[in-house]
Amino acid sequence: MTLRSAHWYAGQDRNAYIHRAWMRRGTPDDAFDRPQIAIANTASDLTPCNAHLTEVAKSVANGIYEAGGIPRELPVVSLGETNVRPTAMLWRNMAAMSTEEMLRANPIDGVVLLGGCDKTIPSLLMAAASVDLPAVVMPGGPMLTGTFRGVPLGCGTDVWRLSEEVRAGTLSNEDFTRSEKSMIRSRGHCNTMGTASTMALVAEALGTVIPGVAGTPAPDSRLLEAAHGTGRAAVELVAADRRPSTFLTEANFHNAIVALAAIGGSTNAVVHLLAIAGRLGIELTLDDFDRIGSRVPVLVDLLPAGRFLMDDFHRAGGLLAVLREVRDLLDPAGLTVTGKPLVDYLDEAPIWDAEVIRPRSAPLVAEGGIAVLRGSLAPSGALIKPAAASPELLRHRGRAVVFDSIEDFHARIDDPDLDVDASSVLVLRGCGPKGYPGMPEVANMPLPRKLLEQGVRDMVRICDGRMSGTAYGTVVLHVAPEAAAGGPLARVRTGDWIVLDVPGRRIDVEADLSDRAPNTDGFAAPRRGWERLYVDHVLGADTGADLDFLLGSSGSEVSRESH
Ligand code: FES
Ligand code: MG
């Protein structure tokens, strides 16, 4: 088999001379005949959850060398969920596009994808799908559990909880600030079942991680061993020509959706899986998540839906132990990067702690997953995560209190004169992919202070944005079409009656919207740069919020070159 990199390095012409000469710098002669494996590295000091990936990359490189390949570290765009403004999601497609293009442009035969923080694994997988080179994901792993005054703190989830306690007057500002030093105990990504943990585990269920690796804590020495093995595997992938298009099928996505439901994973995974499928040309729809996922029991008792954290999850047996319990719901045709079916890895996967990972006979929630709602408020669909919602609110009729933007929300939510009570439905628009732009995680709106003080802890909330995977509450999100794209959400007014019926999968407004003009206060079209490109081309949340011209694959061929 001729390696792709041979199109750069083989031969005696002037171009081959240039490619080799500049890459020598101590490289032995035979290196140019061996598989060139990129290590797409999202390490960055500004992505603290991924900062340790440079050490992980060393172990990956050792594995690549050992198997006869040549590692080539490739720093790629990195998105730190907590820092990047206005929201990391605005840049997911940019990270995917730039990574795709740099993999294609360079003499690379295969790639190890090093990710961790929320958007990094999705963007790497979107890139790998579109360039269609042999690729394997190496997740950076979650951090260890931090404690404050003897009580574990869950990343994200406990920030939301503690800040609500401050607003409710039950926690002092001083104690709130004190807890900050305990939140992040070690290297690694958020330790709750937020988006980072979810996407690492879902990537494994999808078949793109070596089975058994995802969820290994970042500081655990076994992570580096896994990284070494992943490096070795990447060289084997090239020999087998196992590219994403050769083994990722509907069956893989089926298994990813089952896993997403069984772990009680983040709603963000929906938008990411839709986007990855879109790159592969696989017809995955919002309804597949409800059809496949809603019958699946939630077996994992992790924050935000439950009690424990990722360290506990790994100790309890990890993803394979969960999947073994729902083996009958998996599609046995789903292959992994190793070439073997996912289900082949489930025989030796016991549960070591049945409190953290529940057996099928005693689930945390009998039917979990993510419910897809439709109705006059969301003709193209909306999501709710029933396991994170209050059971008594899953059927609810209440009056809308509408906010036109997140700024409007912040300006008015704590106004003592705001006409709102516990039965009201908070509606926030202008937060979709186009509207914000970038679809921020704001759907889990903080409740009005006066209601918090009365002891109210949950209300029905509706938004065209997303919510953090670490958040909880009765939140209807990803409403499509979004307000900025002319969806009915733009025509709802304060005082309209809204009816939520999760068992019936409906979200409706009891009003005739047809003669109302859409309210587009707060949407301003960006003038230039990525935001302009994004707003002009981004698709709805219901299809993955990718850019229209990035759907599908261009493969890895580049036919022209001039020096
Ligand atoms: Fe990076 Fe949560 S902020 S994973
Ligand atoms: Mg987030």
TrEMBL record:
<comment type="similarity">
    <text>Belongs to the IlvD/Edd family.</text>
</comment>
<keyword id="KW-0408">Iron</keyword>
<keyword id="KW-0411">Iron-sulfur</keyword>
<keyword id="KW-0028">Amino-acid biosynthesis</keyword>
<dbReference type="InterPro" id="IPR000581">
    <property type="entry name" value="ILV_EDD_N"/>
</dbReference>
<feature type="domain" description="Dihydroxy-acid/6-phosphogluconate dehydratase N-terminal">
    <location>
        <begin position="34"/>
        <end position="342"/>
    </location>
</feature>
<dbReference type="InterPro" id="IPR052352">
    <property type="entry name" value="Sugar_Degrad_Dehydratases"/>
</dbReference>
<dbReference type="InterPro" id="IPR042096">
    <property type="entry name" value="Dihydro-acid_dehy_C"/>
</dbReference>
<keyword id="KW-0100">Branched-chain amino acid biosynthesis</keyword>
<keyword id="KW-0479">Metal-binding</keyword>
<dbReference type="Pfam" id="PF00920">
    <property type="entry name" value="ILVD_EDD_N"/>
</dbReference>
<feature type="domain" description="Dihydroxy-acid/6-phosphogluconate dehydratase C-terminal">
    <location>
        <begin position="355"/>
        <end position="545"/>
    </location>
</feature>
<dbReference type="InterPro" id="IPR037237">
    <property type="entry name" value="IlvD/EDD_N"/>
</dbReference>
<keyword id="KW-0001">2Fe-2S</keyword>
<protein>
    <submittedName>
        <fullName>IlvD/Edd family dehydratase</fullName>
    </submittedName>
</protein>
<dbReference type="InterPro" id="IPR056740">
    <property type="entry name" value="ILV_EDD_C"/>
</dbReference>
<dbReference type="Pfam" id="PF24877">
    <property type="entry name" value="ILV_EDD_C"/>
</dbReference>
<keyword id="KW-0456">Lyase</keyword>
